[in-house]
Amino acid sequence: MALDALLQPVVLFFLLGALAAFARSDLAIPEAVAKGISLYLMMSIGLRGGGEVAETGFTHDMLLAGGAGLALSFLLPLPAFWLLRTAGKLDRTNAAAVAAHYGSVSVVTFATGSEILRHAGMAPAGFMVAVLAVMETPAIITGLLLARAQGKDSLAPRGGLLHETFLNGSVILLLGSFLIGLVAGKGGMAPIAPVFDVPFRGMLCIFLLDMGLIAARRLMDRRALTVRTAALALLLPLLNGTLGVVLGVELGLDAGSSAALGILAGSASYIAVPAVMRLALPAADPGLYLGMSLAVTFPFNLTIGIGYYGWVAAHVWPLIRG
Amino acid sequence: MALDALLQPVVLFFLLGALAAFARSDLAIPEAVAKGISLYLMMSIGLRGGGEVAETGFTHDMLLAGGAGLALSFLLPLPAFWLLRTAGKLDRTNAAAVAAHYGSVSVVTFATGSEILRHAGMAPAGFMVAVLAVMETPAIITGLLLARAQGKDSLAPRGGLLHETFLNGSVILLLGSFLIGLVAGKGGMAPIAPVFDVPFRGMLCIFLLDMGLIAARRLMDRRALTVRTAALALLLPLLNGTLGVVLGVELGLDAGSSAALGILAGSASYIAVPAVMRLALPAADPGLYLGMSLAVTFPFNLTIGIGYYGWVAAHVWPLIRG
Amino acid sequence: MALDALLQPVVLFFLLGALAAFARSDLAIPEAVAKGISLYLMMSIGLRGGGEVAETGFTHDMLLAGGAGLALSFLLPLPAFWLLRTAGKLDRTNAAAVAAHYGSVSVVTFATGSEILRHAGMAPAGFMVAVLAVMETPAIITGLLLARAQGKDSLAPRGGLLHETFLNGSVILLLGSFLIGLVAGKGGMAPIAPVFDVPFRGMLCIFLLDMGLIAARRLMDRRALTVRTAALALLLPLLNGTLGVVLGVELGLDAGSSAALGILAGSASYIAVPAVMRLALPAADPGLYLGMSLAVTFPFNLTIGIGYYGWVAAHVWPLIRG
Amino acid sequence: MTTTTHRRRIEVLADEPLIPVIIRLAAEAGIIHYTLLPTLGGAGAHGRWRDDQLSGATAKVMFLAVTGPEHADAFIDRLAPLLESHHLMLMSSDVEVVRSRKFD
Amino acid sequence: MTTTTHRRRIEVLADEPLIPVIIRLAAEAGIIHYTLLPTLGGAGAHGRWRDDQLSGATAKVMFLAVTGPEHADAFIDRLAPLLESHHLMLMSSDVEVVRSRKFD
Amino acid sequence: MTTTTHRRRIEVLADEPLIPVIIRLAAEAGIIHYTLLPTLGGAGAHGRWRDDQLSGATAKVMFLAVTGPEHADAFIDRLAPLLESHHLMLMSSDVEVVRSRKFD
Ligand SMILES: Nc1ncnc2c1ncn2[C@@H]1O[C@H](COP(=O)(O)O)[C@@H](O)[C@H]1O
Ligand SMILES: Nc1ncnc2c1ncn2[C@@H]1O[C@H](COP(=O)(O)O)[C@@H](O)[C@H]1O
Ligand SMILES: Nc1ncnc2c1ncn2[C@@H]1O[C@H](COP(=O)(O)O)[C@@H](O)[C@H]1O
Ligand code: NA
Ligand code: NA
Ligand code: NA
């Protein structure tokens, strides 16, 4: 699965973008277009997930997966914080900000992972989109508590922060689209499928080209990254992702959904969380948290992580359990 | 039809946008993307209308509907002006500017209405697109006459204004695409249908999400709106729309086309007319006319108006006539 | 073929844009959207060409066509330079800059030409996309040598210029997408075809609408164009294009590919080359080279040139050869 | 050292549909060189706005011209009566330029 | 000739998520009229940036307000302690405006 | 009251492909902090332009740097010979900044 996955156009376009940036080409996707595609991807993921749940109905598995996601998002920042403080030698504020990113999720890693799993015959269940939505914000709360953000450091009132967190554009769009998909069902989805379903994979290619450019440019500007933090940006997804997969299999989820839970746990946010952190913890360095999540963890997950989580879910853990 | 219409994704996305804005979420569609989709919608509407007319040929009904549209656009500003002056207590300039908006039409209301009517088995005739194009500008002329815009108030020369009016980008694009659809016919349309026909409804969803955001943000900023003007922004579409439907049925148009004529008469412009008014009547308050047309009338038509016009066209008026 | 080609929506939208601009309408496509579509067109052309070559494998014809393209791009600037100096009365720097544009190619002219040829049953071979990519940059080198750009005039170091040339965003994207198409093959292309194949022609319509606006606005601003340079902007495509077609037929390429080689030779760059020239030869007038390539040669090729090259490839030269 | 000359920098914030009018008034005051800059949003006596390009009627553009004192005064005189009615904002400040002839 | 009055032009460059905070601080200093301008990129002590809207966390916006000296000073006093920690850039310069009452 | 210091604000309008050159020249003059601002269009001795991003060759960007007098003069001296040939516009004006050390 690994090499085959690497040679798919979605991943190749990411590599093309990264190569162009490393070679200092002036290739650039207009930001309005990239932002538009990112909104499109969230609408599409939400609608398709909601449409599938409308078919299957609410199941026991869905509840279990949702609870697992909630717990992971709340708790994953804790060991991450400890590692970032000790092995990473970060101060409290920066460690807390980074930890929040790793507890939260990356929508595009999930989207790419789902496509790759589907291609390998391990499509995750539709309700995993709801789990994705559920996992976006709890980690932010844990991160802020870890930073003791209520201190005089921040200008933003407490209420304002929770507001920022739960009404972050990407959270609203994902959840809202999921609900619309749920209400509309397969019937309502049919006439809009030519926009929100069929072209999804192609749109992802364009977006990943841009992600390759952005990630590589950040990596070249890696003022804020040290060897220690870069190594943690590889270790954290592996740890969190493995935990996610194992939890999924143990809870009895199918292999695809378990792999998807691993992808969610192993991915790090670079849309919702940075926007909140810039406001809530202005003293934390955006070069650091975006450098780790966007320039190291994202490419790692895309090229290696996804394949690894799928492999653990399908082969390794079932074998270990016997 | 009403509730069913309300639960369609196009309308739900509008509501999602409005809710997000009311909750003060930072959700935003990049303006370049929203503008791009709005141009797309006009090209698509024009092409499809032209393609259909190329099939059916020019008919007697088309002439009748065009004449009715022309008359409505020229004349609807008159009673509107009177109501805005008396019940709305607006000064001459503001009343004239607002009246022009209500005589003209909203392309997106028409587009959404057509989709909803089609879904209910009452698809309007293709030539209604030509009626839409015809109705965009005459109301501007009436509005300027009502305002006696030729006074020293305005910096724009008379010729410049007519130029602005008839060569407004949206008018040109709609008419031009209609003509291209007419020339190309079904044969020429086939290879471009994957862009201009199939994805239409999905694109409308994205656009209405943005419209929801914009309309709700305007409503929250409703500095310029009074209870009186807000009430008129609900009354005018009802009056004008009913008139449009009745005229359509009386002229012998089919129920779908009559409903579409009602939608056109009942809708208010927020693209072509404001741009001209800002130049021609700078003393008129854009907060007022955009507040009324975009923040009150548009959502009203989308959620209630369209269903009501369809109901009158299909059931009420035929019943009254016996 | 000629009139039929002129009445296709792609060309009609170009004319609509041009008419709107001549009438001084405010119609405008947001630049981010236009740029996004231009990147999309390059990705799509590259992927489809690569996908086709993955099917057919590397052939003798492909090598021949590539060699011919390389030679044309290197050499076509020489006679062009001579004509621009003598008949055009341009100074050395301007003549060299313009000559480089005419040795290079226009991606959109190629794309439109391919669609028109396909429609006429003369689809060019997939490898012509590789030829397109090969022809973009050599002409820049010839142009810089002609200008003796190594002089003290320019601020850009020699290495920087070659870098700018070969890593220009459009060159990278076209070549990269071609390689991805080659790696992915038909199988990998299938899931992304709904984005990169099916909507191509429709997207081209939107882009050509914008090109019509831009070309006509440049023509109206034609400060830099003289009768002489405008005449050369019509003559050069005819000469270069005819040469390209003849070379293609003589090398034994099929009629469609020969016509495509003519289109490439006859077209002038307005994306990659101007960006490099602005940096490498700042003393050359962008109003001149963009005026000639964008405002005169591009519309000429679109409306007349493509049809003419196809006609020569299919009928004239085969007849002359007997 | 390069000699620089004193000139006036005039900035006018206006709704997009009014920009052609501003350009015309500037030209009438002898100012034919200018640059237009985009904006994102703002707030003033007439309320808040954001650049929604939907109608373009309330998107604002910044007109910038560097010019000599006479042209500057002539332009300001022409604009002054319109500032209130057309919701304009006008600023004038001092700049130094090289090649003074270009900025008369 | 139109009379113009002396005012202060305050510009603050800040990350997009911080703009609401800047607007609030300005309002607390009595400045309620402002304009926001877009940026493309830059470089400073905290490294280079480009406006990638992906997360918006590092895209910057220029806040511009024209105001009288007291409000200007009050605003600068409020911002001063945040400049370093929040990676802000603040500039203050002189402008002339018409309709001085609007810019107090 | 917060103390502010006098500095020079240098603005250079240049075609997008030339911006890397401007940044290099600024760095050679000791100016390594800057901000880039977008533009929409304009008119000058070399004609009208609009920001069509198609080729980017004629889209313009505003380079802005706040710096001390020596660096400013060094930068202007380096740019002066290029202004005409490269179609640049240069403006220099006075600003006050807080944290003077950052703007030397
Ligand atoms: N004092 C100010 N400082 C900065 N921008 C202003 C100021 N006053 C007005 N503006 C801008 O000019 C626009 C129109 O002003 P007004 O006519 O007062 O609503 C506002 O929306 C702001 O964008
Ligand atoms: N001297 C300066 N001139 C122009 N822009 C500056 C200057 N210093 C800082 N900036 C801008 O402010 C941003 C933040 O500055 P810093 O906190 O030093 O990284 C930089 O990325 C630049 O865009
Ligand atoms: N006096 C001026 N005021 C404002 N912008 C100017 C001025 N002169 C030139 N520009 C800008 O600089 C660009 C290049 O100037 P030029 O080289 O004179 O064509 C113009 O297109 C304008 O955008
Ligand atoms: Na995670
Ligand atoms: Na109406
Ligand atoms: Na050529």
Automatic annotation (TrEMBL), chains A, B, C:
Ordered alphabetically, the record's keywords are: Membrane, Transmembrane, Transmembrane helix
Specify one Pfam family. Answer: Sbt_1
What InterPro entries does the database record attribute to this sequence? Answer: Sbt_1
Q: Where are the transmembrane segments?
A: 62-83, 95-113, 125-146, 166-185, 200-220, 232-253, 259-281, 288-311
Q: Which domain of life is it from?
A: Bacteria
| Name this protein carries in UniProt | Sodium-dependent bicarbonate transport family permease
**Organism field:** Sandarakinorhabdus cyanobacteriorum
Organism classification, top ranks? Bacteria, Pseudomonadati, Pseudomonadota, Alphaproteobacteria, Sphingomonadales
TrEMBL record, chains D, E, F:
Q: Where are the transmembrane segments?
A: none
What's a Pfam family this protein contains?
P-II
For this UniProt entry, the molecular function terms from Gene Ontology, in alphabetical order, are: enzyme regulator activity
Name the Gene Ontology biological process terms.
Answer: regulation of nitrogen utilization
SUPFAM superfamilies listed in its UniProt record:
GlnB-like
InterPro entries assigned: N-reg_PII, N-reg_PII-like_a/b, N-reg_PII/ATP_PRibTrfase_C
Tell me what this protein is called.
Nitrogen regulatory protein P-II
